[in-house]
């Protein structure tokens, strides 16, 4: 009888670093693109330990607030696609090269939509990253009306340089990032 070996589907997973990252997936635009910025940070677990095997996806509008309608978001040919994927490294750090999002509606605060996949999560987590200068607009958003100021603060990136934003994600514990639940993604039953 032939020797059998477990496949990923038969062992404990998930395996986000296997077959999901792709070349330049973290580049929504090339680094030399006009107005390119770096959005980076770390992902931490409930004990404050960096998560070395998380996968993040972002979706965003362009600088003018227009949601890109570029077919083939996996292609990296110099056009802004509005979507990217980055894995964390051994130190739990991730980075995207992109542009600052513009507001999609008058008076709305611009944001990056973020999806987090990581070990120990039964399902993905959704959050947003807001630019620090839009704090008042976000406070006025009815989506966050009942949120305490300390919790709301977990949704803002910090400027660390002229073209650099830092946003750390804390999956649990002290200063846990605010995560969103969408009705279509809720648990039923």
Automatic annotation (TrEMBL):
<comment type="similarity">
    <text>Belongs to the intradiol ring-cleavage dioxygenase family.</text>
</comment>
<keyword id="KW-0560">Oxidoreductase</keyword>
<dbReference type="InterPro" id="IPR000627">
    <property type="entry name" value="Intradiol_dOase_C"/>
</dbReference>
<dbReference type="InterPro" id="IPR050770">
    <property type="entry name" value="Intradiol_RC_Dioxygenase"/>
</dbReference>
<dbReference type="InterPro" id="IPR015889">
    <property type="entry name" value="Intradiol_dOase_core"/>
</dbReference>
<dbReference type="Pfam" id="PF00775">
    <property type="entry name" value="Dioxygenase_C"/>
</dbReference>
<feature type="domain" description="Intradiol ring-cleavage dioxygenases">
    <location>
        <begin position="36"/>
        <end position="105"/>
    </location>
</feature>
<dbReference type="GO" id="GO:0018578">
    <property type="term" value="F:protocatechuate 3,4-dioxygenase activity"/>
</dbReference>
<dbReference type="InterPro" id="IPR012786">
    <property type="entry name" value="Protocat_dOase_a"/>
</dbReference>
<keyword id="KW-0223">Dioxygenase</keyword>
<protein>
    <submittedName>
        <fullName>Protocatechuate 3,4-dioxygenase subunit alpha</fullName>
        <ecNumber>1.13.11.3</ecNumber>
    </submittedName>
</protein>
């Amino acid at each position: 009888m032939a020797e059998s070996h477990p496949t990923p589907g038969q062992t404990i997973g998930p395996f986000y670093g296997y077959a999901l990252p792709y070349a330049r997936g973290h580049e929504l635009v090339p680094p030399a693109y006009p107005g390119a910025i770096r959005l980076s940070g770390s992902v931490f677990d409930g004990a404050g330990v960096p998560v070395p095997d998380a996968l993040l996806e972002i979706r965003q509008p362009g600088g003018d607030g227009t949601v890109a309608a570029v077919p083939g978001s996996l292609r990296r040919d110099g056009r802004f696609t509005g979507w990217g994927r980055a894995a964390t490294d051994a130190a739990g750090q991730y980075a995207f090269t992109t542009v600052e999002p513009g507001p999609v509606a008058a008076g709305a605060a611009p944001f990056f939509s973020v999806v987090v996949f990581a070990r120990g999560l039964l399902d993905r987590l959704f959050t947003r990253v807001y630019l620090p200068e839009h704090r008042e607009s976000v406070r006025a958003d009815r989506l966050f009306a009942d949120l305490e100021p300390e919790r709301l603060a977990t949704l803002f990136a910090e400027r660390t340089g002229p073209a650099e934003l830092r946003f750390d994600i804390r999956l649990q514990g002290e200063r846990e990032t605010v995560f969103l639940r969408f009705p279509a993604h809720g648990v039923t039953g």
